[in-house]
C-alpha cells in the first residue's frame, strides 16, 4: 500500500459531481468523493502506474481522473448516461488529463460496444450497489472480469460473503484489500437522512480461469423504489466523518 496522496485528493476536489437535476435514480448514481477516490488509489497504485485502466460505470469520471493522475498510461471510462459523460469530459479537461482519458457510451450488457477483451491491464470501478436492481453489482464484476484479469471494485461490506463465495464461480479469486467508509450524501427525495455513512470493501478480483464469466444479466428497467432510508434510531453511536478512511487488511 502506498502513502495517501493529499495532492491527488485536492485535485479531485475541484471536479464537478452529478447535477442534481440530471441525476438518475434508476442508475443508482452517487458521487465518488475526492477523499474516497484518493483512498482507493492508495491501495491500488501498483496496478495503476503505467497500466491500461478501464473504469466501468465511470459516472462523472472521478476514478478515471484519479487513475490518470496516478500515472496510468491510458484510461477508458464506460457509462450508459450521456449527461454523466458530458460532466466527465469537463472533469478530465479540468485535470488536464484529456490526452490520457477517453470515454465510451454503452451498457455493460452490450458486448458489441464494450472495449475489447485484454485491451486493459486493470479495471477500477465503483459500481451500483444493487439497491435499485438486485444483482447489478455482481453483473458489473462479471463484465469487468470478461475484459480484464485484475478488477478492483467497491462494494457494501454487507455483501462481502456473497461476493467472495461467488467469485470462484466466475473464474476468479477475490480478496478484500481495504475497508473504507463511503459517506453518501442525501441525493434523492426519498432519502430521510442528510447523509449516510456506509461501510464498503475495496475488493480485488483476479481472473484465474481461462473461461469467461457467465453472461451479464439484462439491464431492463428495474421496478420503482420500495424502501426509504430509515431515520436514525435512539441510542446509536454518533457517526464519524470517516469518508474514505479505512484500514489495510
* Total discrete domains: 1
Largest sheet: 8 strands, mixed
Shape: globular
Order of helices and strands: HHEHEHEEHEHEEE
Mean pLDDT: 83
Give the C-level CATH assignment.
Answer: Alpha Beta
According to CATH, the homologous superfamily is Vaccinia Virus protein VP39
Q: Quickly give the CATH architecture.
A: 3-Layer(aba) Sandwich
Share of helix, binned: 10-25%
Structural category is: alpha/beta
Number of helices: 6
Count of strand segments: 8
Instruction: State the CATH topology.
Output: Rossmann fold
Summarize the helices and strands and which ones pair or pack.
Elements lengths: L5 H7 L21 H11 L7 E5 L5 H8 L4 E6 L2 H13 L6 E5 L16 E4 L10 H10 L4 E7 L3 H8 L4 E14 L9 E13 L38 E3 L1
Parallel strand pairs: 1-2, 1-4, 2-3, 4-5
Antiparallel strand pairs: 5-7, 6-7, 6-8
Can you put this structure into words, describing what you see?
The chain is an alpha/beta fold. 23% of the residues lie in helices and 23% in strands. The chain has one domain: Vaccinia Virus protein VP39 (Rossmann fold, 3-Layer(aba) Sandwich). It contains 6 helices and 8 strands, in the order H-H-E-H-E-H-E-E-H-E-H-E-E-E. It has an 8-stranded mixed sheet with strand order 3-2-1-4-5-7-6-8, with helices on both faces. Strand 1, helix 3 (62-69) and strand 2 form a beta-alpha-beta unit. Helix 1 (6-12) crosses helix 2. Residues 220-243 have low confidence and may be disordered.
How would you concisely characterize the structure shown here?
The protein has six helices and eight strands; from the N terminus they run H-H-E-H-E-H-E-E-H-E-H-E-E-E. An eight-stranded mixed sheet has the order 3-2-1-4-5-7-6-8, with helices on both faces.
